[in-house]
Design goal:
Strand order of the largest sheet: 1-2
Distance between the termini: 109 Å
Number of strands: 4
CATH topology of one domain: Herpes Virus-1
Number of helices: 10
Shape: elongated
Order of helices and strands: EEHHHHHHHEEHHH
Largest sheet: 2 strands, antiparallel
């Protein structure tokens, strides 16, 4: 008898990948601790399955018609339950079964996505210029998407553009991080410092860059596009005083927030008396 089919004696250790301990069987075969040794696949008692196999072999030796009777019983059961015999299946079904068996024998096959990706890598290895162009296109797409969805990212790049403008005009600029700009927007409750409108806000320099205004938190407030384009390079106090939406408490709020930032360089007088 092959080694793989030898049954462990009661109380002896067993291979846990092949056997397991379970509830007592109908014949009460106990292996250890009041439990029966069962097959891991299927859960049958290993001794009961051996006894049943021997009984079937004995019946076959005593009754040669047993196999024919059993085949007739299986055919009648399939006919009653509507399950067709495998021998009567189409050739396409058998070909598909053979194909599945061949695939299983080869092991895990790569997916379609993995095959396409590997083909793309092979192409890029032979055409490095096309790979570089694809990487640049992806980076441009990601930057554009982030600019549309990330408010802090969009705000940082707008402030960076303003800082570049100050440098070109020979003014003073101080690097501002996205966190600093985001906190300044929080100071104004993410609304326009002048009219209170919300939405997509722009970086507004209270003292215009063209008149010596510096790029610093002491000179920056959030503003809507309408207020920013209307003010342009005019004096903030005189322009705001003439607007129909002017409110004293908003102007005092701008003054108090900007004065807390303590500009590092001397500017023009921000506010008229």
């Amino acid at each position: 008898m092959p080694k793989a089919y030898e049954l462990p004696a009661p109380g002896e250790p067993f291979d846990p990948e092949v056997f397991k301990l379970g509830q007592p069987c109908k014949r009460d075969h106990i292996h250890a601790d009041g439990l029966t040794l069962r097959k891991r696949n299927g859960g049958q008692c290993i001794i009961c399955s051996r006894i049943d196999s021997l009984e079937r072999q004995q019946r076959l030796r005593q009754d040669p018609e047993y196999n024919r009777k059993r085949a007739a019983y299986v055919a009648e059961k399939r006919k009653r339950e509507g399950r067709p015999s495998r021998a009567k299946r189409s050739e396409e079904w058998h070909a598909l079964r053979r194909l599945h068996a061949a695939i299983n024998r080869t092991g895990k096959c790569p997916s379609v996505a993995q095959l396409v990706y590997q083909q793309q890598l092979d192409y890029w290895r032979d055409h490095p210029s096309d790979r570089l162009a694809a990487i640049r296109a992806q980076a441009k797409h990601r930057a554009r998407w982030r600019h549309m969805t990330d408010t802090a990212y969009r705000l940082y790049h707008r402030a960076k553009s303003k800082a570049r403008k100050v440098v070109l005009r020979g003014g003073t600029h101080i690097h501002l991080s996205p966190i600093q700009l985001w906190r300044r927007w929080c100071d104004f409750d993410h609304s326009c410092a002048y009219c209170g409108a919300s939405g997509d806000l722009e970086v507004e320099h209270v003292v215009p860059i063209s008149k010596g205004g510096e790029h610093h938190l002491g000179n920056i407030v959030p503003a809507c596009h309408r207020c920013n384009s209307s003010k342009r390079s005019r004096d903030a106090w005189s322009w705001y005083k003439a607007q129909p939406f002017y409110e004293d408490w908003r102007w005092h709020n701008i003054e108090s927030i900007l004065n807390k930032s303590k500009p590092m360089t001397k500017q023009i007088n921000l506010f008229a008396s």
